[in-house]
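hey so i finally got around to running the thing on that chain from the lab meeting. sorry it took forever, my laptop kept dying and i had to restart like 3 times. anyway pasting the input first so we r on the same page abt which one it is
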Amino acid sequence: MYRHMKVVTIHLDESVYQDFQKLAKRTKRSTSDLIREAMEQYKKQVLKNRRPIFETSVPASVGQVLQPWKGRGELVCDFLERK
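ok and heres what got predicted. didnt touch it at all, straight out
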């Protein structure tokens, strides 16, 4: 059924693991099957849509640079002038 699989040890919050165990019982599946499926979903939804940073024109978390610094001296002055 499965290709060659790698055994992985992970640490989960107890409540997360219990939720997986309850769902496994209800669906008559193994907990490891559900966790494996959740990891596959994450891979499809998140990892496949990521682009390497060098392909990203503007960092998503920072936005555009408003005024580039001209040098280290300006950086130090800006830092010291902040209140």
